[in-house]
Write a structure and sequence with these properties.
- By secondary structure, this protein is α/β, with parallel strands linked by helices.
- The protein has 6 helices and 7 strands.
- A 7-stranded mixed beta sheet has the order 3-2-1-4-5-6-7, sandwiched between helices.
- Helix 1 packs across helix 6.
Length: 201
């Protein structure tokens, strides 16, 4: 059966990448195959996870690129080499330009650790998202997987899952619960859904 070629873009620890790798092994992702892991930072633990799973991996260090255009051109070169059909942003901490998102319209998905449209957009990433949810005092948060367009966290929503906030939560405890109860579940499911759509066309 034909499969969509998946490239996963990461910047850090890569627990969402691990969820994708595990889902592929478990057959939850069956319409696509992870062909490339690309990191925007050198030495990201996500690269070790790719290595352990026998997946091709590469670093395009944001810091070593002259500007965003240069950074994105280098990424596109890697994506084209891997004949990428779908790009999954899994803890990728760089905002992509309109030029880039336009080139891959409906082909880029992102996982965000809140229920969009709450606590999202520029400046809301990683632990900051959970700090904002706790400081606002919401009782329910969660995660969202959405298509990526030119508006940060503004593309069409694919899947969402709610997670309870508990008394005494810290940004760290909340981040862990949101990952375990939402992100690691909905990211692989959304990835499979988009891959299935792509290969059916
Ligand atoms: C995850 O919580 C992901 O949702 C978040 O960063 C973390 C990365 O963890 N992404 C964003 O905030 C993007 N706006 P991971 O490297 O262990 O997957």
């Amino acid at each position: 059966m034909k499969k969509a070629n998946i490239a996963v873009l990461v910047s850090g620890g890569g627990t969402n990448l691990q969820a994708l790798i595990d889902a592929q092994k478990a057959g939850i992702i069956k319409s696509g195959e992870i062909k490339l892991v690309l990191s925007s930072s050198e030495g990201a633990y996500a690269l070790t996870r790719a290595e352990n799973a026998g997946i091709a991996h590469v670093t395009v260090a944001r810091k070593q690129c002259a500007n965003r255009d240069d950074f994105e051109e280098k990424i596109i070169e890697q994506l084209e080499n891997a004949q990428t059909d779908i790009i999954v942003l899994a803890g990728f901490m760089c905002i992509l330009s309109e030029k880039f998102t336009g080139k891959y319209a409906n082909r880029i998905i992102n996982v965000h650790p809140s229920l969009i449209p709450s606590f999202c957009g520029e400046g809301f990433y990683g632990l900051h998202v959970h700090e904002a949810a706790l400081s606002y005092g919401v009782k329910v948060t969660g995660a969202t997987v959405h298509f990526v367009n030119e508006i940060p966290d503004g593309g069409k929503i694919i899947l969402q899952k709610a997670v309870e906030i508990l008394d005494g939560d810290t940004p760290e405890t909340l981040q862990k619960r949101v990952m375990e109860q939402a992100e690691w579940i909905i990211l692989p499911r959304a990835c499979e859904k988009v891959c299935a759509d792509i290969i059916s066309k």
